[in-house]
């Protein structure tokens, strides 16, 4: 399979396995500490803080938890069945069936999250996402995403089917953040307290 079709193949797989994925998805929320840190970084203002959840999946458990924390949720997913389940699980959230690679919502958000989604893009697609993050970031917005711990491409598993993963070198992520006016606050590779996730947290300074 050539590079250009790997991300599209993964989207099709998630669409096909969405219901099974929802049944299998752990609800223990090992991500809670990181999610709370992201909320703490996101700027406060008179209204509810606005979260852009890129690759939101079914919305459970992450978007549901952030909604309970008082954030106004906007979910984006390229898999039709995933976004349908998101709408069913979070009926008061805003849902967009859209591809993050070409996203242009025309509005800013106080927090941008791409948890276990951004790393399904090819290396070049990941590089091109940073201007998209920037265009959707309100002043002081938090940005959090997960990657692998080092540069490489692998095939993983989603509900028993193969899905593509890629990562850049951590130094390149640091450079991309800086060039797009994001200040790196933390990077933890293979966090043992979070299921081995490699997590990036930054603040928009533009």
UniProtKB/TrEMBL annotation:
Superkingdom: Bacteria
Keywords noted in UniProt: Methyltransferase, S-adenosyl-L-methionine, Transferase
Keyword S-adenosyl-L-methionine attributed: yes
Domain Methyltransferase per the UniProt entry, residue ranges: 52-140
Keyword Disulfide bond: no
A single GO molecular function term of this UniProt record: methyltransferase activity
Any GO BP annotation: methylation
Gene3D superfamilies: Vaccinia Virus protein VP39
The protein's name in its UniProt record: SAM-dependent methyltransferase
Organism of derivation: Salibaculum griseiflavum
